[in-house]
Structures are given as C-alpha cells and as structure tokens.
Amino acid sequence: MSSETSQLLSELEDKLTNLKQDLSSLSADQQYEMLASRAVHVIQPELLRKRLRKAKEDKKPLLIKYGIDPTGKDLHLGHIVPIIVARRLLQMGHKIALVFGDFTAFIGDPTGRVDTRPILSPEQIEENVSEYRSQVGKFIDLSKVEIVFNSTFYQKMSIRDLMSIYRANRLSPLLQREDFRNRMEGLTIAEALYPTLMAIDSLFMKPHIELGGNDQFLNFEITVEVMKSQGLPPECAITTELLLGTSGDGTKMSKSRGNFISLRDTANDTFGKVMSIPDSLLEHYFTLLTDITNEDWSALSHRMSQTTLNPMEVKKLLARILVTLLYSREEAYEAQKHFEKVFSSRQLPEEIPSLEVEKPSSTQPWVELLVAIQLVKSKREARELITNGALRLLNQTGEWEQITNIEANLPETDPFTIKLGKRKFASVRILPNR
Questions:
Q1: In what order do the strands lie in the sheet with 354-358?
Q2: Dihedral sign, CA of 179, 180, 186, 187?
Q3: Which of 48, 118, 377, 420 is the most buried (most CB within 10 A)?
C-alpha cells in the first residue's frame, strides 16, 4: 500500500469517527440534498424543502421524530441507520425527539411479521428502554436529544378521543398491506391498529419530519392522512434503506435470520462479523453506517478497482470505525490484532476461556457439553450447529478436526480445545466422576 493510500485511510478513520461535525452553515437546499441523497423515499418533498427554507429564514429549528419500540434488549446495526440521519439533522441545528414506544411495545410493530409478538411486562419494557438508551447513545449525543415516552400521550386520551380519530380514517390502506393480507387469520385487532397508534404520537408531538426505515413507508403515509383528518399540518417523512445482513444473500439484517451485528456484541465479535461481509456490501455499509461523502467513497472505490488498495484493508477500516464508535479506538486496534491472529494467521487467540465441567451423562455428550459451557443457549441450537459442521476439535497434530456426530465420544485428552463457528473458543477439562 502506498503512503498516499495509507494517509487516505488514516484521514478517513479520523473523519468518520468524529461525531461532532457542524453542519449548521449548510443552506436549506444543501440540507435537503444531503438528506435526500441517502433516502429511499421523501414523503412530501416540496413541503420538506419549504420547511427547511423557512427554518433557515426564521432561525427556528424543525422538530424531528424518530420512534422505536423497546421489544428486546439489543439493537443491531440496521436500527442505527435512521439514527445517523437524525444525527445529521441535529448537526444542522434541528431538534431531535427520540420516542420510546413503551406503550406500543405491548403490541409490537407488526410490519413484516409472520406471527404475533409475545406480550412484554412493564418491567421488561423498562429494562429494554435502559439498554436501548445506552446503545443509541453511542451514535448520537443524547444530552442534546429530547427523550419521549409515548405512554404519556395515551394517558391523556379517552375512548371517545380514539373513536373520533378512527371514524375519520379509512380501513382500506391497512387491508392493502401485504404483510397483513398474508396473515389475516392470525392478525389481532391490536396489530391492525398499530399504524394509527404511531399517528397518535405525531398528533401530540406535531413533528415537522419523521424518520424510519423504508419498511415504515406505509405507516408514515397513514400518519400523514391521520394528521390531515385532524386538521393538523401533516408531517414530512424520510425513509432510509434497510441494512442488508452479513450473509450477503440480499436479505435485510435481522435477529431472526441470524445475519446481524448486535450493538451488544464484544469488540472482537463486532470486528470479526464486519470482516465476514462480502466485498460487494462495502459501499452499502459505508453509505448507511458512516458519514462518508460520495467523493471519499469514490477515492476508495477507484483505488480498489485499480488494485492499489485491497478490499480487505477497506473492510478493516469499516470494522475499526464501528468498533471505535461502540467502544474505543484502542479496543478497535486490539480487535484488529485479535482478528489478524485468529482468522488471518489461523492461530489460537492469546486468551481462551478455560472451563471445567462434569462428564456428560447423556448419549449426546457434545450437545450436553456445549450447553454446560454456555457456548449455546439450548440443546436444539447445539444439535443444529454440530450437524451443520460448526464444531471443531484441536487434535494432537495441531489440526482442527470437524465434529458432526452428536453421539461421538469426547476426547480423552485433558484439557482439550474446541472451536464453535468462527469466533468461539474454549479449553475444556472434564472433572472426574464424584
């Protein structure tokens, strides 16, 4: 790699890990172009231009709404894409309101679902909100963001208020949704009402702009119609592209598909998962997850096409940026060293957890072992991973031997080292029978 290319990577790393850019000097039209260039849809684009211009003239910020239901403990990188747009709007001088759907979490957004979400307790929701705040705060300064809980809106409403909203809006837009039609028999009334509950948030908040992934497009259109029906200025909306999963098969990042990078992953796991994405997704990830400019990406892309820059180095840059934002720059470089040692050099990591367990008594000792040392959460997961070839044993010749038979005996060497998947290692000692 030339010194010029090395300097470009270093400058980009500094620039893309700096979340304190000042975009307040941009004109209204420049703000619009920046927002639209990274959007899939802008609902009511001319109105958005008009509002940006008026905000600039009056020196009065717009109110931006981004809502998220705390239905689990961890977010993945796909959830952060609209947050990055919110961060740019904050840097432009606008006001951001982060709405935690502590009420709507009882229902759960049915968009794209093939089943009904489980009901959460108030304690679970409160715990999830705490986790979400910690994770989101790594990508946007929450001290400058208004935190809103949508349960406060519904406490102010009566059944009569709700009925007046429902009477003014048609059911047909909901019935046109493919995800609803595909599971009409199991669809609950609560799920069918979810888009209007989103709209009620906006009736109270009166945002100028709402942000969300492109899977929220129909929900946003319903919100616009509800606001109009109540005599309010309708919000504009910006939808972002859905981040594709790490597998490279074209499906969106999703916990249910297992192709996600959790914001609660360790620095090493985050780095390793980023390195696992195919080269074809590099532009997609840089564009959605960082503030890289088109010019800077073109500079990287040109060097890769001219073979003066290995895509592996660009992927390492992306991994370092994300780990730095989630943890620290020091941990990012430590994670890179770990990756290069374990995966590039195919050596063992410096620190492998040493575990002691009693000898499994079942006819499926490997299944019982993986559960006992907590490399998996269930016996079912263990069986699937073993039969799919994810378990390997370091044999006496220093080679990784694949274990695919769940009934195979455990090795007699004590201790023995195993690897599950690409990133999980353990040194296991079987305790003698009591």
A1: 354-358, 424-431, 416-420, 391-394, 400-403
A2: positive
A3: 48
DSSP H/E element including 65:
strand 63-68
SS3 360: coil
Residue identified by tokens 């909901």 is 174
pLDDT of residue 117: 53
- According to the model, what pLDDT value does residue 2 have? 86
SS3 411: coil
Which pairs count as long-range contacts for 323-329, CB under 8 Å and 24+ apart, including other chains?
323/267, 323/270, 323/271, 324/13, 324/17, 325/17, 325/19, 325/138, 325/139, 326/138, 326/263, 326/267, 326/270, 327/267, 329/17
How far from the centroid of its chain's Cα atoms is residue 156's Cα?
Answer: 32
**Winning range, highest mean pLDDT, from 27-31, 189-193, 262-266:** 27-31
Distance CA 348, CA 430 (A): 21
* Consecutive H or E run containing 226: helix 217-229
Q: Which of 137, 83, 136, 73 is nearest to 105 (CA)?
A: 73
At 253 the pLDDT is 92
Q: Is the pLDDT of residue 110 over 60?
A: no
**Cα torsion at 198, 68, 216, 107 (round to 10°)?**
-60
Among 133, 48, 58, which residue's Cα sits nearest to residue 89?
48
**Taking a C-beta distance cutoff of 8 angstroms, is the pair 270, 261 a contact?**
yes
Q: Walk me through the domains of the chain, giving residue ranges and CATH numbers.
A: 1-18+243-351 (1.10.240.10), 22-240 (3.40.50.620), 354-431 (3.10.290.10)
Tokens of 36: 């639209």
Residues sharing a CB contact under 8 Å with residue 416, sequence separation 6 or more, in sequence order: 393, 394, 410, 427, 428
Q: What does the pLDDT average to over 380-403?
A: 84
pLDDT bin (cut points 50, 70, 90) of residue 231 is very high
∠ CA(50), CA(55), CA(59), 5° rounding? Answer: 155
Q: ω before 415 within 30° of 0 (cis)?
A: yes
| CA distances for 186 relative to 110, 166, 192, 257, angstroms | 12, 22, 11, 22
pTM of the entire predicted model: 0.77
Q: Residue with structure tokens 């073979």?
A: 307
Q: What is the pLDDT of residue 115?
A: 46
Count the Cβ atoms, other than its own, within 10 Å of residue 325: 20
114 pLDDT band, cuts 50/70/90, is: very low
Residue 104 is predicted with a pLDDT of 74
Q: Which amino acid is at 83?
A: I
DSSP annotation of 58: H
